Amino acid sequence: MLRVGKEPPAFEDQGTLVRVTLAGGIGHDVFVRFISDLPLQAGRDVNVLLALSHLRHSSSIDALRLGGLIQRQPVEAQEVLARMATELTLLEPTRRTLNKPFPTYRLRAGVVAALSRAVAYHRRGIDGMDQKIIDHVREYGFITNRTIQRIFDVHVFAVRDLLNDLRESRILEKIGDARGGKGVRYGPGSAFPK
């Protein structure tokens, strides 16, 4: 179910009765595209998928929380999170918990941008991706959708959502007469950092 963008089943234990609820509707297409771009082994790892599914709705996760989701001990859950942070480069530990045995993790900025609409929250404000885009515009005077795709190696839809966020916050604005396609360029907006 997770591989088609649906929420995992919800289990409710009432002693002698266990109720499983499956969410209806279609899956989230952005999440499906993101999963399909992962290395094959990671895209089929239920533990990784459950962690990513949780992080679509919550800004952080730790080994205790993931252990409950994947029904493993915290030590085993920590191994999954550590692999997602180092091998797969999907997560990063928060600064405050970096030196703890079970740090709290969050999605990296590039992953949040790639998941775009699939994430219920956004860490907006000037993050690492935004700063690179701003630096590029300062140096060259403009940026395009394709340039951002190449710089960050993200899907066209993630770039579209990122550009929309930057336009809504007036950091960037469309320049020129192009209506769509390769000719659309974005330059400094009224809130572009000095």
List keywords for this structure.
single chain, 194 residues, alpha+beta, Arc Repressor Mutant, subunit A, 2 domains, two-stranded antiparallel sheet, two-stranded antiparallel ribbon, 9 helices, WH-like_DNA-bd_sf
Structure description:
The protein has 194 residues and is of the alpha+beta class. It has 2 domains: 2-118, Arc Repressor Mutant, subunit A (Orthogonal Bundle); 128-188, Winged helix-like DNA-binding domain superfamily/Winged helix DNA-binding domain (Arc Repressor Mutant, subunit A, Orthogonal Bundle). The protein is 44% helix and 11% strand. The chain contains 9 helices and 6 strands; from the N terminus they run ββαααααββααααββ. It has helices at 29-37, 40-43, 46-55, 63-70, 74-86, 109-115, 128-140, 145-152, 156-168; strands spanning 10-13, 18-21, 91-93, 105-107, 172-175, 185-188. Strands 1-2 form a two-stranded antiparallel ribbon. A two-stranded antiparallel sheet has the order 3-4. A hairpin with a 4-residue loop joins β1 and β2. α4 (63-70) packs across α5 (74-86) and α8 crosses α9 (156-168). It is elongated and about 65 Å long. The N and C termini lie far apart (46 Å). The mean pLDDT is 86.
